[in-house]
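Query structure, 230 tokens:
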């Protein structure tokens, strides 16, 4: 699995994806999320893999253990590199998911979403009724993901350092919420630059609108790649 910035292909149609990918003449690491997958299904995976790209299938599964196990067993049959579940589904759900995935795809990595990077601590306290700091909530989710033997977590770059301190280096920290100084933050609440994400210990960054909505996505991708690689 590469560690170039993961481009979030948050488009509605395969035509838009194809048009976007055709701008690039190098292997990329891309992310397919629910917007694209739920409308276009496995065709989407085929298109990305035929072009030789690495793939993070970001479906954030969260259901009873047996259902997540079956879903991950099925999805593992596609040529995916990285996939995720919500840590809030619990240890048993994560273990069952991992078992399902490993039975059909021994190489794909499974990570857990901790708290979405669009969530503020105030929202977490009032809407999820988790009465701790957001950092403690994220560390707790990362700890249970580790107990379930997952490969890492999705978290804000601002939390990567804490997770490394609690769990060690050998754990993926895949971090969305990346913006350059000139970008809008959109709906993201906890954002950082690529350099800061790297300093804070992210192992992978996910970048969507900063690249996909830029007037020159290829130039913007290379700028982010350069800043991420240092
Ligand atoms: O456009 P932007 O860079 O904000 O896109 C971030 C991507 O990362 C989106 O596809 C979003 O669904 C995803 N994501 C996130 N926060 C998480 C997990 C995934 O923003 N905790």
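Result returned for the query:
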């Amino acid at each position: 699995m590469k560690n170039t910035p993961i481009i979030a292909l948050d488009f509605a149609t395969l035509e838009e994806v194809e048009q976007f990918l055709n701008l690039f003449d190098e292997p990329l690491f891309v992310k397919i999320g629910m917007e694209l997958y739920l409308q276009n299904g496995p065709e989407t995976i085929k298109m990305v893999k035929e072009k030789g790209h690495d793939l993070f299938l970001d479906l954030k599964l969260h259901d009873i253990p047996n259902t997540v196990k079956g879903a991950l067993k099925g999805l593992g049959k596609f040529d995916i590199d990285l996939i995720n579940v919500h840590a809030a589904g619990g240890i048993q759900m994560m273990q069952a998911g991992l078992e399902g995935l490993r039975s059909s795809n021994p190489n794909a990595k499974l990570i857990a979403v901790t708290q979405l990077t669009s969530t503020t601590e105030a929202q977490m306290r009032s809407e999820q009724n988790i009465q701790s700091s957001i950092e403690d909530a994220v560390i707790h989710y990362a700890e249970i993901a580790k107990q379930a033997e997952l490969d890492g977590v999705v978290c804000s770059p601002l939390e990567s350092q804490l997770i490394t301190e609690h769990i060690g280096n050998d754990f993926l920290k895949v971090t969305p919420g990346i913006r350059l100084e000139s970008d809008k933050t959109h709906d993201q609440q906890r954002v950082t630059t690529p350099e800061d994400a790297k300093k804070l210990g992210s192992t992978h960054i996910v970048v969507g609108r900063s690249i996909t909505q830029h007037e020159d996505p290829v130039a913007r991708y290379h700028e982010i790649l350069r800043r991420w690689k240092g």
